[in-house]
Amino acid sequence: MSICVRALLHNKRKWKKTLIIFCLLFFVVTLVLSGISIANAEEKKSEELRGTTGSSFVVERNLSTGGWASGSSGSYSTQEFITEEMLQTISAVDGIAGYDVSIVSMPYYFNEAGEPLVNVNGNGVNNYYTYGSINTEYNQLFLSGRFELVEGSHITENIKNGLIISKENAEQNGIKIGDKITGINDPYNDDPEVDMEIVGFFEIVADKEDEATMYDASTLWDYTDYAFCSFNTMKEMAVKYDDGNKIQEAHFYVTDAAQLEDIIKEVQNISSINWDNFIIEANDEVYQNISSSLSDTSTLIITLITVIIIASMVLIILILSMSMRSRKREIGILLAVGITKPSILLQYVIETLMTAVVAFPLAYLFSRRIAGEFGGLFGKAAENIIVTSQYFALVIVAGTVLLIVAVLISCIPVMRYEPKEILAQIE
């Protein structure tokens, strides 16, 4: 009788043991496949995160190394400002996705009828806390997720007179995309009027009660009363103010947060910039916080998979060891009639693998259906968790090796005896 036939007959005769091992393998493989898929989804999310969390570095004037002078408005730093040449040189470094430069002011805005745009906050102050930005897409308020552009487009270097306000303010003032707006930095100081065009609306995503995501530069302005205008437009509005139209700091955003430190080092090696006059600092707090959370989840998943595999191995070895003790007589007889120990071991391996051949594919099909449900326990969207054939192949290889090891370990107590010793113990 061939080894495979003996293995098949034994599994049929000892169907209860076979069913227990089948259920155990089915359960373990299902959990392992689901766990690997969740961990992989976590890794992909981490990779996406590295390019979308707004990890950046800021270059700003180093006032401590500059001189000071006095003017009609008081003392001011004579330290050099950031130039457009500096911006172009730094932004050309590999790994920098883009940059934003902002001049902040509090101008007033008027519609085509000359009526002022009224604030939502109701404090009686109708000017807007405004960023004059080169690329609003890279403004920290948008990249951090506090604001979301919901209509229109971002301001870019190609848009010379654009204005973005909150959708809530736009609705209150009856403003729509394409409307003409006049901006004045200070209408009571004979500042110039600058023509603008509404190019976009934003909505506030940040929780106003969450101090980690909500802040105001002044208690006079709520997020709804923020605005963004083109950089050149802000310079025109602030033309009468010495420091008001010059670049004091610039934010550069990287494509991969993990490369932030290397990129900063490369920027600091730019010889055309006198770094004694400027400070460069990393800003990846958002990435580090979220990345830490993702890492903790991945560690938990890997730990659970490891515990499940170890526990299942112990159980399988115990089940097979108990089965071996009950098969001493069979083993003694097989050895006595000339069947070698390797042949007997091979039979027992085949018995277990026959069960695995059925359990593994069924577990694969089942895990593809329920992996998303498991992912929900870790806050993952079901559509992001996919059990692939590559994972299945990995589990087959690893599972087969572990099963063979389990069979060999369970056979050690019996196989170390000679046939006469085994039969004598039975008698």
Automatic annotation (TrEMBL):
Topology class, membrane: Multi-pass membrane protein
Database matches in Pfam families: FtsX
Domain annotation ABC3 transporter permease C-terminal: ranges: 303-416
Localization: Cell membrane
UniProt keywords, alphabetically: Cell membrane, Membrane, Transmembrane, Transmembrane helix
Keyword Membrane applies: yes
Annotated TM spans: 300-324, 345-366, 391-415
Name recorded for this polypeptide: ABC transporter permease
